[in-house]
Design brief:
Number of helices: 4
Number of strands: 11
Structural class: alpha+beta
Number of domains: 2
Helix content: 10-25%
Distance between the termini: 52 Å
Largest sheet: 6 strands, antiparallel
Length: about 200
């Protein structure tokens, strides 16, 4: 009995320390990705090459400046260059370098301030993960799932959103040791999910 009780307490302590809930896992992941809590003051630039089957690549340059509430994206595909530039409530759009383009061009290329805002929200969401999971309207399941992807086991949390935010269901995959967020998957209207 003397040996059993200390051994039981050690096992109980270890198992309790290893059991995180989704809020704790998210906190650990944010500490991993943003240890200095810099996301709210983020200013950065990115270049993205989007490869789409049976189409030419789209090359995009992005600037995100959270303190200035500014966002810029320039996308080039073939002979078409579009730019969306948001600064607060100001919106500027260009097509092949010109702010003067026809309604037909605007419709065909989805050139609108609503589209610019969608890009801003989309890219600040993706590049702000996992910190953006603390935003209002985010509903995080309290349970952590365990899933395997390409031979590696992950801790996974499910995230849904309030109806005014969005209807997608997201799954975020975290390394069980470092808590680094390595993969995310979202579902729109089908059960396939897109892995990113």
């Amino acid at each position: 009995m003397r040996t059993f009780l200390p051994l039981f307490l050690i096992v109980l302590t270890i198992s309790c320390n290893n059991e995180l809930n989704s809020s704790q896992l998210l906190k650990e992941s944010i500490a991993y990705h943003d240890p200095e809590n810099n996301w709210t003051t983020f200013r950065g630039e990115f270049h993205i090459t989007m490869e789409i089957p049976e189409q030419s690549n789209r090359e995009s340059d992005l600037r995100i400046d959270l303190p200035a509430d500014a966002f810029y994206v320039k996308a080039v595909r073939d002979t078409i260059t579009t730019e969306f530039d948001l600064k607060g409530s100001e919106c500027r759009i260009t097509y092949n370098g010109s702010e003067n383009f026809s309604e037909e061009i605007a419709t065909a290329n989805r050139l609108s301030c609503e589209r610019a805002t969608m890009y801003k929200n989309y890219y600040t969401y993706l590049y702000g993960l996992p910190m953006k999971l603390k935003d209002p309207g985010t509903d995080i399941s309290p349970e952590i799932q365990t899933k395997e992807f390409k031979g590696k086991t992950y801790d996974v949390i499910e995230v849904k959103y309030d109806p005014e935010v969005g209807s997608d269901i997201w799954y975020f995959y975290f390394d069980p040791e470092t808590h680094a967020m390595e993969i995310y998957q979202f579902y729109k209207t089908d059960d396939n999910g897109e892995m990113i």
